[in-house]
Amino acid sequence: xxxxxxxxxxxxxNDDTVLVQNxxxxxxxxxxxxxxTYIYKILIGNxxxxxxxxxxxxxxxxxxxxxxxxxxxxxxxxVMAKRGKMTEKETKNxxxxxxxxxxxxxxxxxxxxxxNPNNIMITKDARVKIIDFDISRSFKKGAGSDTVILGTVGxxxxxxxxxxxxxxxxxxxxxxxxxxVMLTGKMPNEKMYGGKLGRVIxxxxxxxxxxRYRNIAKFKHAFTNEVDENTNPAxxxxxxxxxxxxxxxxxxxxxxxIYATYxxxxxxxxxxxxxIPHTILGEIFVFIIPYMLLxxxxxxxxxxxxxxASALFAAIVLSVIFIFIGSYFISTGMGN
Length: 336
Fold this sequence. Notes:
336 residues, Phosphorylase Kinase, domain 1
């Protein structure tokens, strides 16, 4: 363990945060309240790829000093100021990583309580890092409300203003607001993003915490169509198959019926007509292209339109056209 005196100050961010150097390495030195020491002790013993690394902790009578990694990158706030609104793909990537970091924190009973663009760092290799745990707290079962009202205006959930105690759904609210700002440049109360993602955001930012998603992992899956990193590998594979992504029973049953008839029929036609070029082309038009458009296994439908409903409508119209053309090719091949 190094001595605090071995970290030489280079420059100052504010009274409590300075940039320091130890040997050839650069770090950030912060003075934090004593009551937050336990949070940093948890973090130093359990590093995570989406949380800023805590290097050392020095405890004193009146405060605690921590040494954490210096993140070579920009805040999400700076990125958005330069870029403006972000695409759905970019937003899903960043929000997905924020969710992974929060899933880790919530697993250790830590609520960040101040998720906003200034506390999200984007590294040079596009990794997301959550920083600044200055108003974090642990969930206290049975407590009625927070003893201290803190949080960034716009991103702070209603319960942070004394209505009830902060919980994991408090961070969920902030992530929902963040996602909407990334997609529209506006707060949800000014402009709500449309389509499926808009509906997900609306549920995440509901005033009543009980009506939001149950946890960050549920929100992540709904928003990115991915699962968290701790999910069983077999479930991850299953959720890659159209019809099984949500693990909804009725959707899986419908998918099984379709696959049980669609795939054998497609194989039968291909085997039967393997030497007839026109028929093979027709089968591609009738079976393969509509499947790719309607099931959207690679997420390519978003290239048609950013709005889910518009993209689905266009996919249906195109599928009908391809099926009609394909049927003509098949009938022509059969005639020959």
